[in-house]
Amino acid sequence: MGNQLTEMLKGTLEGIVLAILARRSAYGYEITAWLRDRGFSDIAEGTIYALLVRVEQRGFVDVEKVPSEKGPPRKVYSLNAKGRDQLAEFWRTWSVLTDRIEQLRHNGNQHEKGA
Amino acid sequence: MGNQLTEMLKGTLEGIVLAILARRSAYGYEITAWLRDRGFSDIAEGTIYALLVRVEQRGFVDVEKVPSEKGPPRKVYSLNAKGRDQLAEFWRTWSVLTDRIEQLRHNGNQHEKGA
DNA sequence: ACCAGTAGTTAGCGTCGCTGGGTAGCGAGG
DNA sequence: CCTCGCTACCCAGCGACGCTAACTACTGGT
């Protein structure tokens, strides 16, 4: 029945990851661990990898393979120009949605538009 | 490619509709029109009907068939107790998500958790 | 030799919103 | 009378997304 948060993450998780990459480059395992630390403890391991593949295919990130001393090579992702555009677009859309919803939440949204 | 907003609506649209029904009972066509008025102009007609069927099946709303002078009978939906619980849960989850994302947005979320 | 931790990949699933069509009832116009 | 347009609802099929549950591969410790 996928809980609320799972459904809400659809569409926002990509923005979240892009926002993380906007700060600095990172690899999948790192991002997953970091999200867990930050309260996004509910995000599944595999989800991030799939998402990273997607954003790579769309050309929002550049990738570099970096050897690790502790395991298989890491795929380090960096946000590029197109990715920064996408992130900006994400924040715009996010603002629109949150604005409308907050309006709906507090404001006595009387349906009676006439007045 | 479903634009951002479409993806973001997943999981939130249900809450939006429940919030509308919390103010007063309404039928599908009415809700659709009202959403269009309120800037949610991008929401597809059929989407609302499918959503209403879903929330009915989950027992969040009660339904009453009311004849219309201008067309086929309306199905008027009212939020019931279970629906109010669900709506409260929705707001809780929504708050959690927005809090985390706003934190990510402004706050210089240095990954360097160490020092 | 074995296991735990690191790091990434894949196939298949369920949910959601969208698309595009259809049905039904009523009133106005040709 | 027949069609058009508005009201009002329903349905099948689609793509995108996140989740589940596996698997591969490399390193270091016991």
TrEMBL record, chains A, B:
Pfam families named in the record: PadR
Domain of life: Bacteria
Domain Transcription regulator PadR N-terminal as annotated: residue spans: 17-89
InterPro entries attached to this UniProt entry: Metal_resp_DNA-bind_regulator (IPR052509), Tscrpt_reg_PadR_N (IPR005149), WH-like_DNA-bd_sf (IPR036388), WH_DNA-bd_sf (IPR036390)
Listed name of the protein: PadR family transcriptional regulator
